[in-house]
Write a structure and sequence with these properties.
This protein is mainly α and 109 residues long. The protein contains 3 helices and 2 strands, in the order αβααβ. Strands 1-2 form a two-stranded antiparallel ribbon. Helix 1 runs antiparallel to helix 2 and helix 2 packs antiparallel against helix 3.
């Protein structure tokens, strides 16, 4: 049985990973380092894979998917979820950015 909390967690996790990568790549006030940009792209890909596999595996079991294939896909879904959360937490904890200086605020004489 599919619960609403599972659907909610998958949807929020997938959407958050995309928004997080976009905010790291296109932030206007912070200059993120190149490793953080690359890690955010990996987090986005892992989050999208996590969501896609999660929604695919929520459907009733198809007769063409064996139990072994289902178990492997479920394990891969959990690995992608862990990678997504790990990349995001490492970027948040490391704070690999510098604040951009506002050029227009400097007085000109």
């Amino acid at each position: 049985m599919i619960s609403n909390s599972e659907v909610f967690i998958l949807a929020v996790g997938t959407i958050f990973s995309v928004f997080f990568a976009a905010s790291v790549l296109f932030h206007t006030r912070r200059a993120y380092s190149s490793w953080a940009k690359l890690a955010s792209v990996f987090a986005c890909l892992a989050g999208l894979t996590w969501g896609a596999l999660g929604f695919f595996l929520m459907q009733p079991r198809n007769p063409e998917i064996t139990r072994h294939t289902y178990s492997v896909l479920l394990a891969f879904e959990h690995i992608c979820g862990g990678l997504c959360l790990g990349f995001i937490l490492s970027i948040l904890l490391a704070r690999p950015y510098q604040k951009k200086s506002d050029v227009s605020s400097t007085p000109t004489v």
